[in-house]
Amino acid sequence: MSRAARWFAHSGIQETCGGVARYYRAELQRNLPVSTEITGYAARTFFYLHTLTGESAYFDRGVSAARFLTRAAWKPEWRTVPFELDGNANLRAYFFDCGIVVRGLLSAWRGTDDPEFLDVARALGRSMAIDFRSNDSEFHPILLLPGKQPAGRDQDRWSRSPGCYQLKAALAWKELAEATGDLQFEEMYHRAAAHAMRSYGAFLPGHPEPAKVMDRLHPFLYCLEGLLPCAADPRFAAAIRDGIHKAAEYLRELAPRFERSDVYAQLLRMRIYASAAGAVPLDLEQARFEAGKLEEFQVSSEDCRIDGGFYFGRHGAEWLPHANPVSTAFALQALALWEQRQRGDAPPHWNSLI
Fold this sequence. Notes:
Blueprint: H1 2-10, E1 20-21, E2 24-25, E3 30-31, E4 34-35, H2 36-53, H3 56-73, E5 91-94, H4 95-112, H5 115-131, E6 142-145, E7 149-150, H6 167-180, H7 183-199, H8 210-226, H9 234-254, E8 258-260, H10 261-276, H11 284-295, E9 311-315, E10 318-323, H12 325-343
Antiparallel strand pairs: 1-4, 2-3, 2-10, 5-6, 6-7, 8-9, 9-10
């Protein structure tokens, strides 16, 4: 975990502007462009690391990431955050990404009490509720900027279609409700949770190709994460219980051909949080297996650009050479939670989930 934390802070994945690259292409020795979504995840990760370690370097990097989001990524004239800031004419905003940015800013606000972070988070949360709303009570996954027209949907690509996975982004509304006392945000979260409950059962397998099914496990687990605030409700607890079992079955079946580190990490985190919430007893044997598999994805290298980070995935014995910040963030948190669980400690509040 300490090596993963050092990778986040010292690998160069966070650039001098404070923004964080989508991932590092080890075979090309370069970062992909800075991503607003990944910077939101990174802000949350840095403040989580500061809570774990007390080290000021993580606090400073979290503030830097959050200020990039409020001062560079946030576009007040559009009241939203673009997908990337690469200067392309065909700019896009994603519902999911906006939710991750809001949650990153709320982590920064809780860590610093700086109103700048809460103000932008609140404004972006409101624009999510207004701009992305579809006529059929769904949320458009993508808007074209600056006019905010809905982009064409692609049923073959989950991120370009609405779905139950959007509930992870809707956690932003739940957190905003707790931060501001605004009950409209609470209502928006519960609407999204009810919609997810109606659709999550059909999300898997969702595609005839095994590799695409593995890719869909990642957003399916986003849906389960989004249900955590409701885990005390028997209906939502049953969905979490069923979802963990279903995700684990598909993961075991597909892993010999293709496996992703983030899926192992998300499944392990869900087991621990769901057990703490009383939704499903923790299967210690399966949790131990997933923690062990997850550790296999961590990179050991003399190259500081990748050492300590986690590879995105592998096909059979062949690693995909992407040192991935989201995979690393999920993995370090999953392993920290697993270590705490073995000591008998309960996980922190669900809003600590990266």
